Amino acid sequence: MAKRSIPALNKVLSNLISSPPPPPPRCPSILSQTRSVTYMPRPGDGTPRCVTLIPGDGIGPVVTGTVERVMKAMHAPVYFERYEVHGDMKKVPEEVIESIKKNKICLKGGLATPVGGGVNSLNVQLRKELDLYASLVNCFNLPGLPTRHENVDIVVIRENTEGEYSGLEHEVVPGVVESLKFCSERIAKYAFEYAYLNNRKKVTAVHKANIMKLADGLFLESCREVATKYPGIQYNEIIVDNCCMQLVSKPEQFDVMVTPNLYGNLVSNTAAGIAGGTGVMPGGNVGADHAIFEQGASAGNVGNEELVEQKKANPVALLLSSAMMLRHLQFPSFADRLETAVKQVILEGKYRTRDLGGHSSTEEVADAVIAALTD
């Protein structure tokens, strides 16, 4: 019996030798697994925050009203303290300044600024009173919105409290006006810190030091000194007139741009026009203690009475600025939800205001964003 089993045993052994055993089952790699990123708040971080709200002039009340509706629909942990401020006032009421100092955060519609006549801009007054030294405008392509250039994602950071645009000027003698311009190292530090924290690769300093050798020369010295402390970030410089030409021809070459006050206003509006228009560009003004969020580039349609009467102002810029505000308040998931909903509405293309090639009203765009939030 043992002899008869030997051939069968030999056959089994032969098969084992000719056919190597199958490899052991592989454990799934930890790196290949998708993991959610958890935001771990400190106790009390979910407490609703009070935000000072300034509806402003012209289309301001229309678009700020949209933000209020959307925030309520998404149950965002913010509530508003409303104040009426208008551009023809001699100064910002003291109770408004105190409210912003208390809340440390403000959402603002556009304020009309009188041209000439010695009337100070209330926008400038707010920035100086609260020392909001950094203005930030993010100009980027929105999926679904056709533009002349693709791959545009520019952040313009400009000094907000000094230079020609700050209103620091006086008449020396009749007919001779002197504008004061200083250098501020802190705007250079802010630009590089922003680039570092947001994984940006390059900072470009915009200047006119070939003519303004002292003032803009000091600005460049500050930028160069700060750049040495951030070796992982590429740094370069460009003269402002060449910068404008490069913006309209090859805007994708720029990443973060840091500028003195006046140049930054021109550069940010140019970049906004290239990326889709001022109606879709978010922005804000920030200092060490306070921040005001508003439409990023100049609200040239603030006084457009037709848009106000028809209620067809574009709310996208202020909605995206509100998402920036929510991140500033450390409510990242609400910010992501709002930004995603706005981008979805733009991508679908069904509800767009006239400046984006559509015919929708402000309310229709708001309804579409709310629907996207609740899907």
From TrEMBL:
Domain of life of the source: Eukaryota
Subcellular location, record wording: Mitochondrion
MF term (GO), any: metal ion binding
Protein name: Isopropylmalate dehydrogenase-like domain-containing protein
Protein family per UniProt: Belongs to the isocitrate and isopropylmalate dehydrogenases family.
Listed GO biological process terms: isocitrate metabolic process; tricarboxylic acid cycle
UniProt keyword terms in alphabetical order: Magnesium, Manganese, Metal-binding, Mitochondrion, NAD, Oxidoreductase, Transit peptide, Tricarboxylic acid cycle
NCBIfam families listed in its UniProt record: mito_nad_idh
Primary location: mitochondrion
Protein function: Performs an essential role in the oxidative function of the citric acid cycle.
One of the record's GO cellular component terms: mitochondrion
Pfam families: Iso_dh
Occurrences of domain Isopropylmalate dehydrogenase-like (ranges): 50-369
